[in-house]
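re: ur question from earlier - yeah i can do the single chain one, its not a big deal. heres the input i used so u can compare w yours
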Amino acid sequence: MPRLLLCSLFLAGTAIASAAVKVEKTAYDGWPNCYRITNGDVELIVTTDIGPRIMRYAFVGGRNVFVEFAEELGKSGESKWFGRGGHRLWSAPEILPDTYALDNSPVKITIAGDTVTLLQPVEKETHLQKEITVKLAATGSEVEIIHRIRNAGAKPRKMALWALTQMAPNGLAIAIFPPRGSHDTVLSPTNPLTMWAYTNFSDPRWTFTKKYLLLQMQPGNKDSQKTGLFNPNTAAGYLLGSDFFVKKTVADPKAEYPDFGCSYETYTADTFLEMETLSPLTVVQPGKSATHTEHWSLHKGVTLTEKTDEAIDRAIGRYLR
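and the output i got, formated as tokens:
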């Protein structure tokens, strides 16, 4: 669907207003049952035809910072899992076939003032039920995203909640390490840096500074890269042109985390880059739920002149702390 038609589609939708936040039904990306959430500064679009998924986050009328795979949009009911783009919820660790349980059927939406909740049916493959709640601030770009997974099965399940955001091509992901120190003052390790079998830190898309981990998205490069780390104040951003997307979560240093202790992971392939946060591993009893909260923000007019601590601190350091 041409993006130039968005405004007319929004005006044709059904609007539900609460304070400064407005929620209106609209068609988007070929799905007829979507909802636009806006406060006049930024906008998000969720779909109820599949999911739960958040397909768009942008300044009003601006570029979507999330990737959207055109050939996979507007469809549902397939016999296999599709990436589609946007933001989704999985359970960790990654295992087959559970991780790739289908999320291609309609979801239930609940709108309560400025809060929108998407609830999927119980997954037949896993007996899990996933839910995403979106709460947009009255002004500015701040969004609270609450992820919930309920164990609808008959047995306890040990898992972590895994929030994955697929970013548009050509951007730069920047994650912050825990506070740095010297050998004289900090003798113990502060965080893991996890490798997968395909991780190659000699790949020029990686940049390491003392304070930051950077990964450049390079369209067409099919050599996948991934790493993960732990930070009690997990924060990472994605610089796309002059727009800067930030996602944050709070991690528990005393808890067990997946993948050798990761609260944040980043992955890139030839068509997208993924920013992922994780909750602690938890044994979820039958009928019970676990939750994981992220906070998003979007900033415009950001310019990074070079990949150094000093330049990053000046350009975006305040957004990641």
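The chain is about 5% helix and 45% strand. not sure if urs matches, ping me
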